[in-house]
Amino acid sequence: MKMEGRSEPMGVLSIYDLMRNVKVGQNGVLIRMRHLLETSQWSDVTFVVGRSAEEEETLRAHKLLLAASSPVFEAMLYGSLAESGPVRVTDLKPRTFLALLEYVYTDESNFQEMEDAFETLYAAKKYLLPQLVTRCNEYISSLLRFSNVCFVLEFAMGIHEERLSEKCLLFIGQNAREVLSHSSFLSIKQSTLSVILDQDDLDVKSELEVLDAVLRWSTEECRRRKLSSKPCNKRKVIGPTLEKVRLLTLTADQFLGVVGLKDILTPEEFRDVLSFLVKPNSCEVPASVCGNDTPRQVSSSRRNVGAPASCHFCSDSTVVTTYGGKFCDWCKAPIS
Hints:
With 336 residues, the chain is mainly α. The protein has 16 helices and three strands. It comes from Timema tahoe.
């Protein structure tokens, strides 16, 4: 109701109109906030969201709510460099940005699949929403499988999400035999391989399993780089990662029994490692060979953690995966 003798600026609704339109008795603040989000009523900022012109959508929101939730939005909308026109967001899908707005307005977050959580995690880190980051991490961690954990690790490393990276490495350590023998392991980047080999806690019977995985990976990496799988090319693609394989934990018989290893190592490396295995400390180990002779193991506090055997969902570090069939487009693991 407008008070007599008092005029209101054109386009500005009274408190009475606000309460009437939002329906105050409609189950509380969160529902009224959702009403504002869904209707865009009294919105004062426009976002043009999409990674391509075909994907672009226009979304409207309320500056005050965004700024109160995120220091990034505060600087973007009220800082010294704030712009008056539409704000363009070119690194997110419209549905992801809308999910972000839904969290800001209602504190709700709903993921239908891992792809949703990947994209929302990226957005939550970008706009500094730590509680949403935690929710995404928890959801993704609950879906870790032998067939997707390496790719989740690559995604986490790509966006510098240390907590998720640690959970992936813990999972890999506890299930190393299954992870290293899975076909998805062959598709990882060299940097991911290096991080995995840095781990002391890998539940393997011996370093033979690690070495076998590295050699299989090198064959596949040669194929990806369109190189022949000659020993010199395998050594080239493995690079300094070979220095993280603990050859000195093998027996002499195990070392001699690895097919093709003699051709990948230099004659000097092969001779010195074999001499060391036959008679420990009988010679210096080349700098290009790992000097750690302690077998990998999983500590007692990390044992007996099971893992479901099927893959659910996974995505890529650029957050653009779509699903076009029975298999994930990125890691080719079956989607359930």
